[in-house]
Please model this.
Amino acid sequence: MSTTAAALGTFSVRPLDPIADAELLHGWVTHPKAAFWMMQEAALHDVEREYMAIAAAEHHDALIGLHDGEPAFLMERYDPRHVELVGLYEPEPGDVGMHFLVAPTETPVHGFTRAVITAVMRELFADPATRRVVVEPDVANKAVHALNEAVGFVPDREIQKPEKKALLSFCTREQFEAAVGSDPR
Model:
């Protein structure tokens, strides 16, 4: 699926190749702007290992997001009944967990990150089985909280994960459409 954001181009996703994409991802996840990704000290082989594990996982997958055909963001989706949030909340049928990371750039474009999260959400809701998207960003990541709110997420509560204190938030299909509109472009 691809979406077009006015004046920002076309966004699409492709499967992540843990070996071929490792060097690209390594540059993204170890960049200072990716501090909340918690891989700042990762070596290239650590990134390969992490994404090989995700590729092999039954309930977790990773995709490379493309902007006008060029790699621009990372998207992960997971089943919160089996990954990330097991025992931390009561999942509902149709819940899908999500992480996203925009590639670092020296020349930021106003509205780009919001266009990315909108494209990610459209990709998730393209599956008719997805009823609600679940996220658990670090409570200190105020920038992503604002982005999440802009696309319809509603904070539920803080939860303690092994690696961080997180803000558990949910976004239904209806909340997303009310926030950004249902136009698939």
